[in-house]
Specification:
Length: 166
């Protein structure tokens, strides 16, 4: 089931939707460090403490008013096993790519995966495939023959000495 939540802080707005291990976050307005700090603190409550397998963060409708160092600073205490270390696909406008590429490289030094895209389709495909791999896969039932119908090698009759009736 898809769940949608809207979060607003200052001039920033984030629309979150979650479905089958993938959380999409569409940011709009002015994205500042203060707004992102508040968002990161509220994120567990927004997701109801259900961490996804992957995020898809879209910043194409936002004005980024922070630096890569400030973005990375939000994750200074996060390690690979932390819930905030979930892999993410980031969609940015071409002129914001240097900022997000540097941020992705800085997080990679901590073992946190961020992949930066300029188009929604590629980012969605990557995130969806990653989420699919993380979901438990249904098992395929193996049909077995009942024990009685298992074919066994035919038993060869043994020759027995026959007493001569004569």
């Amino acid at each position: 089931m898809k769940r949608v939540v809207v979060y607003e802080c200052g001039a920033m707005r984030a629309t979150l939707a979650s479905h089958r291990g993938l959380v999409t976050m569409d940011f709009s307005g002015v994205v500042t460090l203060a707004a992102l700090e508040a968002f990161v603190v509220e994120l567990p409550a927004l997701l109801q403490d259900r961490w996804p397998a992957v995020y898809l963060c879209t910043f194409t409708r936002a004005v980024i008013a922070t630096t890569a160092d400030d973005l990375t600073g939000l994750f200074r205490d996060v390690n690979q096993d932390d819930a905030h270390a979930v892999p993410a696909a980031v969609v940015a406008r071409p002129h914001d790519m240097p900022l997000f590429n540097l941020h992705a490289w800085q997080l990679a030094q901590k073992g946190i995966l961020r992949v930066v895209f300029t188009d929604d389709e590629s980012a969605f495909s990557w995130a969806q495939a990653r989420a699919q791999r993380a979901l438990p896969q249904p098992s395929i039932p193996v049909r077995r023959k009942p024990r009685d119908s298992i074919s066994r090698p035919a038993l060869q009759p043994r020759a027995r000495p026959v007493s001569d009736p004569c």
